[in-house]
Design a protein that fits this description.
The structure holds 2 protein chains of 2 kinds. Chain A has 7 helices and 2 strands. By secondary structure, chain A is mainly α. A two-stranded antiparallel ribbon of chain A has the order 1-2. Chain B has 2 domains: about 210 residues, Rossmann fold; about 55 residues. In chain B, helix 3 packs antiparallel against helix 4. Classes of the chains: A mainly alpha, B alpha/beta. At the A-B interface, helix 1 and helix 4 of A face strand 5 and helix 2 of B.
Chain lengths: ~230, ~290
């Protein structure tokens, strides 16, 4: 990894980490309020990690959408190439995904020690182990970040580009979501699919990685000639 | 990179369906200050965006020392493009910006930047979103002056600055170019104030380069004749008169062309005053007719 790439990854990660400092405490407050005031067994048994997992994906999607608008102009002004910028963002997405999962887990652990809150990693599932949920959470959140990045590059190029990017992103996020929902719970959009799927964890991971590679290739082709707009 | 040469060869730029720049050819050398002039929408910022790799030319090439800077990891940090930025959401301080720039651009001189910030009377620990527009512009100017980049571009960077700050900036442009000779491009609408800074003038009009000339040669393109109405009118008859102004019985004609020695003697004998044109006057006259502005 060259020095500029390292620097940019560090700087972008720090900036997005600041955004999570707003997001996670707000999420924690929502969790505490819901746990204390909603009297339903499912909700009361749910850990913070389980509740935040889907919210984290949306956070990553938004972070991806913000990335180009916040960082691209600055990066090019500082002399980074678009390629370095993209590579730094790909790494940043990974760093933030793992960082966010770790901090969410710590929050969950602390809250889980208190008698009022649940402490399971998964919300409802009992068949798939917690590790499957964690891997699924990490890969899904990362793909959501990349999908957000596609949307922002699309809109940066123009309205039509943005609309096409939204469709692409929907396809990508639906693909990763369905794979992991199927893997962990056997359902997709509340449809029972357990009878049709393989449930093979390794296969799901391989398909997820292929999806990530496809998304990165798409981003590489989109960013190559993206103009930086001044004024 | 000490004696960098920047060349734009037959570059054109299309944005959506519009041809923004057409067949631009320019050459610039280190140690010189270039004044880039043009009316609103002439294509100045688009041209600077090509040089700074913010955009890729649709046709033609931009080279620095023979290499295309677009997506060139070695060359892109050597070009600094400073323009008016909206810092209303920027909570970082000038000090943060200096440190960050220094980490990415090895030629950036942080101590010099701090000295310049002091000169502009800018608190370097104050968040940019709490500064006035003029102070934000000054921070931008400082980042460019202290960059020591072989190609430094200032696009309307004095917008919002008060007169003392602008004057300070002009002094520092000369000083910075002496400290670290580079290709410095100043794009501005305040032509009258910055004229003395320019070694060369580039006028861009309706997406095309109208001319690129050393300032002294450019100013020799015309002259002003002032005196009694009848005498001036008689003297300039048959000449290419760009504009005529009246003040009571006095007439002042702005003429395009060179004055021969005989003509100069004739003017003297008629007690007519001959003066060189100012850059702003020449620029206005050269670009107004083509847009039908009178």
């Amino acid at each position: 990894m060259n020095n500029k790439l390292k620097l940019a990854t560090m700087d972008f990660s720090k900036e997005i980490a600041k955004w999570t400092m707003w997001y996670l405490p707000i999420m924690a407050v929502i969790y505490i309020l819901v746990s204390l005031f909603v009297n339903e067994a499912e909700v009361n048994e749910m850990s913070f990690y389980a509740m935040a997992a889907s919210a984290n994906r949306i956070f990553m999607l938004v972070a991806g959408i913000m990335a180009v608008f916040v960082f691209l102009e600055l990066a090019i002004s500082l002399g980074l190439t678009r390629k370095t910028f993209l590579n730094a963002m790909i790494l940043t997405g990974g760093v933030v995904t793992v960082g966010l999962a770790v901090v969410t887990w710590v929050f969950s652990l602390v809250l889980g020690m208190m008698p009022w809150f649940g402490d399971g990693i998964a919300a409802f599932d009992t068949t798939a182990g917690p590790l499957v949920h964690i891997i699924g959470h990490l890969l899904t959140a990362y793909v959501f970040f990349l999908a957000g990045f596609i949307i922002s590059i699309g809109f940066y190029r123009g309205f039509l580009g943005g609309m096409i990017a939204i469709v692409l992103s929907l396809g990508i996020t639906a693909a990763i979501d369905s794979m992991w929902t199927f893997q962990t719970a056997g359902t997709f959009f509340n449809m029972e699919l357990a009878g049709y799927g393989s449930g093979n964890l390794l296969l799901t991971i391989i398909f997820s990685l292929l999806l990530i590679l496809f998304t990165i290739a798409l981003l590489q082709s989109l960013i190559r000639s993206v103009p930086v707009k001044v004024k | 990179m000490a004696n960098s040469v920047l060349e734009v060869k037959n570059a054109s730029l299309d944005i959506k369906k519009d041809r923004v720049l057409e067949d631009i050819t320019l050459k610039m050398e280190a140690g010189r200050v270039y004044g880039l002039l043009g009316r609103n929408g002439a294509g100045k910022t688009s041209l600077l965006s090509l040089i700074a790799s913010f955009r890729k030319p649709t046709r033609g090439v931009v080279t620095i020392d023979g290499q295309d800077p677009y997506e060139n990891a070695e060359l892109m940090p050597k070009v600094d493009f400073l323009y008016e930025v909206d810092y209303s959401e920027e909570y970082r301080t000038p000090e943060d910006f200096c440190r960050m720039t220094q980490r990415y651009k090895q030629d950036f001189d942080t101590d010099y930047a701090y000295a310049l910030l002091d000169g502009f009377r800018i608190d370097r620990r104050k968040a940019l979103n709490r500064m006035s527009k003029g102070q934000q512009a000054a921070v931008n100017a400082v980042l460019g002056l202290a960059s020591n980049s072989p190609v430094t571009i200032f696009d309307e960077v004095t917008n919002g600055m008060d007169a003392p700050s602008r004057e300070y900036f002009y002094q520092k442009v000369i000083e910075a170019n002496a400290r670290s000779p580079r290709i410095m491009i100043l794009s501005t609408h305040i032509v009258s104030e910055m004229e003395y800074l320019f070694d060369e003038v580039i006028i861009i009009h309706q997406g095309r380069v109208m001319l690129q000339e050393p300032l002294d040669i450019f100013l020799e393109r015309g002259f002003r004749v002032t005196g009694p109405k009848e005498k001036v009118a008689h003297f300039t008859r048959g000449m290419d008169v760009l504009a005529t102004e009246y003040l009571g019985p006095t007439q002042s004609d702005m003429v395009l062309g060179h004055l021969e020695e005989l003509q100069r003697q004739e003017a003297q004998s008629r007690y007519l005053n001959i003066a060189p044109l100012k850059l702003q006057e020449l620029f206005i006259r050269m670009t107004e007719d083509r847009e039908g502005v009178q």
